[in-house]
Amino acid sequence: MPRYVALLRGVSPMNCKMAELKACVEAAGYANVKTLLSSGNVAFDTARKTADAALEKKLEAAMQQHLGRGFYTIVRPVAELQELLDADPFAEFKLPAQAKRVVSFLRAEPTATLELPLALSKASILAVRGREILSAYEPGDDSPVFMTLIEKTFGKDITTRTWDTVRKCAAG
After folding, report:
1. 11 plus 67 within the same structural domain
2. Before 117, cis peptide (omega within 30)?
């Protein structure tokens, strides 16, 4: 059975209970459902390989129906997340030890070509690899600035995870 991870934008324990989210995904017909952390990551199996876009649409409709609200959803096969981890794309950049590595996920590859890296304060967009944006920031008082940089460049139809969260999702 193919395994996927749904990455939901804007989920927190305050606006979505993980047990309810799990039940919603099960009600949509998926098996072996597991929520990961409490920030809107759901691993699940499908009976057959399915296009990411079809899964996204079905999950968003199921959330609307079962939770009474939807969350912007991006789906990736677990194998694709593992390939990203195995490639270790951050290794080519000289990042400070304290830098937080983050991946922003898009539904489709961006059409514009960017001059990279882009930087704002202690945040940088390092690279775009297909439907993933690789960024890093140094924690500090202005650390949320990296989301401002990403959203200003790519819009809000994205969802972002730390490198460690990507690792946990791939293992989910």
Report:
1. yes
2. yes
- CATH code for the domain of 25: 3.30.70.1280
Domain that holds residue 22: 3-77
117 contact partners, CB below 8 Å, separation of at least 6: 124, 125, 126, 127
Reported as a single tens digit per residue, the pLDDT across 89-98 is 999 999 999 9
Q: Are 101 and 90 in contact (CB under 8 A)?
A: yes
33-74 confidence digits (pLDDT tens)? 999 998 899 999 999 999 999 999 999 999 999 999 999 999
pTM over 0.85: yes
The number of CA neighbours under 13 Å toward the Cβ of 156 is: 4
Of the residues 58, 77, 96, which one is the last residue of a structural domain?
77
CA-to-CA separations, 93 to 49, 53, 134, in angstroms, rounded: 34, 31, 10
Q: Is the pLDDT of residue 143 over 70?
A: no
b/e map 151-168, b = 16+ CB within 10 Å: eebbeeebbbbebebbeb
